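Saturday, quiet lab. Running sequence design on the structure tokens for the scaffold JK sent over.
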């Protein structure tokens, strides 16, 4: 394997950081970028143990944050150098979510096997705060201005969110929800997207009490990102397995990205613009960067 270029290392870091909601893509992409030398090697080593849930995040101050749930449902995490030691965070874990920003540090949330969501922020050894009971899924984001953003779907199919602190009050976002995805940036504030029980995707940005914009019908899954320069980035996989994306506003037009897609993950930053990664039905991972109409780069093939 050749020496990694600065651009390839940047891609590795951005893919690892950006696909928190698409965890399957996170390690596969970061670990298989052609030429990502030491960075990819550490990721491969870190996840050599059998794992069935993984998370990744990053910020310029604290560096990469990576974590995994192993077979006995214990959750381990590390931050900073990729060869740092693992910290065991929690037992009896069903699913995990993570984010990070330069001001507030790591944000980690776990859904335990009893349906309880716990969260911590600031350091890997911070104490856990019980956020909510009776939960199906959890998603998190964070930015230096608005702080932590946590969203859940409860056992009744209602989506709730809070932002600013781990002890903030919950805001009911919507009922009849299948899944939720979140992002946040200092300029545009929180971005929340849901897929409802009818398969329609809806999004809101700016505040937890903003009105919903209907984005698309016939949707399987949704992923979101946001940055101060480029604004919201929304990607969906529709019922036919096609990936679509839009950027700049909630009412922007859709760009058809690819057909034969299993899952999609996104990230965005002011310098490099949108980053989109897909896992296709053949098990290949592809990514594009810079614009929604950029060409695809194969990152991993079966």
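Result came back. Writing it out in full:
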């Amino acid at each position: 394997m050749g020496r990694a270029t600065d651009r390839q290392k940047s891609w590795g870091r951005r893919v690892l950081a950006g696909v928190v909601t698409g965890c399957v893509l996170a390690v596969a992409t970061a670990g298989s970028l052609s030429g990502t030398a030491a960075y990819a090697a550490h990721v491969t080593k870190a996840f050599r143990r059998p794992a069935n849930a993984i998370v990744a995040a990053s910020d310029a101050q604290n560096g990469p944050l990576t974590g995994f749930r192993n077979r006995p449902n214990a959750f381990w995490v590390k931050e900073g150098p990729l060869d740092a030691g693992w910290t065991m965070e929690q037992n009896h874990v069903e699913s995990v979510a993570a984010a990070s920003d330069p001001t507030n540090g790591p944000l980690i949330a776990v859904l335990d096997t009893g349906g309880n969501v716990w969260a911590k922020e600031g350091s890997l050894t911070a104490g856990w705060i019980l956020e909510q009971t009776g939960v199906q899924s959890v998603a998190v984001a964070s930015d230096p201005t608005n702080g932590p953003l946590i969203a859940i779907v409860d056992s009744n199919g209602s989506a709730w969110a809070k932002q600013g602190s781990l002890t903030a009050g919950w805001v009911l976002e919507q009922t009849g929800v299948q899944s939720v995805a979140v992002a946040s940036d200092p300029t545009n504030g929180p971005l929340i997207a849901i897929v409802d029980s009818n398969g329609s995707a809806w999004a809101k940005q700016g505040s937890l009490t903003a009105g919903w914009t209907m984005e698309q019908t016939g949707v399987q899954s949704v992923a979101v990102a946001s940055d101060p320069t480029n604004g919201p980035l929304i990607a969906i996989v529709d019922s036919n397995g096609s990936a679509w994306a839009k950027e700049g506003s909630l009412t922007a037009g859709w760009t058809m990205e690819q057909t034969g897609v299993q899952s999609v993950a996104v990230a965005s930053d002011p310098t490099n613009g949108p980053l989109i990664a897909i896992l296709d039905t053949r098990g290949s991972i592809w990514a594009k960067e810079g614009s929604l109409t950029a060409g695809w780069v194969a990152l991993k093939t079966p």
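Notes for JK: Residues 1-52 have pLDDT under 50 and may be disordered. The chain is about 10% helix and 50% strand. Ask whether to fix the surface positions before the next round.
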